[in-house]
Design brief:
With 158 residues, the protein is α+β, with helices and mostly antiparallel strands. 41% of the residues lie in helices and 20% in strands. It has seven helices and six strands, in the order ααβββαβααβααβ. The strands form two sheets. Strands 3-2-1-6 form a four-stranded mixed sheet. Strands 4-5 form a two-stranded antiparallel sheet. A hairpin with a 4-residue loop joins β2 and β3.
């Protein structure tokens, strides 16, 4: 029985990713999440859907970055645009840090590694201040451009 449930899951994973990708192109998307403890560890499940589709994503964190990663299907894309800069300002990131993003020509980073190298070039990775410039900038820049329209309690994440 276990073999039937766990063997050859690649086809199902590919179909699940295709459903999410197609569903995010629809007129609207709803999201919700729930959490529970299992084996002494917290876990969170996010439901993403509309009247045409539903997918579920599970992980150990309920952070904004974790949510955006689930919403974007695990694709790493960091974009410095007006919305990202506004998010950084709303989160009280110092203007000198925001200015570094505005002055730099690179605006789109297609992998987490490229993004992390960019933060190092800007000198943000070594900063030990509050608010954390790496966290705030990553939350602001992560995701799609423009993000899908959301209903439910996450619509103000963007």
């Amino acid at each position: 029985m276990v073999r039937l449930l766990t063997a050859k899951l690649e086809t199902f994973r590919a179909e699940d990713e295709a459903v999410l990708k197609a569903g995010l192109c629809g007129a609207y998307v709803t999201v919700d999440d729930t959490g529970a403890r299992h084996a002494g560890k917290n876990g969170y499940t996010t439901q993403i859907g509309s009247y045409n589709f539903t997918t579920f994503r599970t992980g150990p964190s309920k952070s904004r970055l974790a949510f955006l990663s689930r919403l974007c299907g695990g694709v790493s894309l960091y974009v410095i645009n007006d919305a990202a800069l506004a998010y950084m300002e709303e989160r009280n990131l110092p203007q000198i840090v925001i200015g570094k993003f505005k002055e730099h020509k690179a605006r789109i980073f297609s992998s987490a590694g490229d993004w992390e190298r960019h933060l190092q070039v800007l000198g943000l990775s070594a900063m030990n201040v509050t608010p954390d410039p790496v966290l705030i900038a990553s939350e602001g820049a992560y995701g799609r451009d423009p993000p899908p329209r959301l209903t439910a309690r996450y619509r103000d994440c963007f």
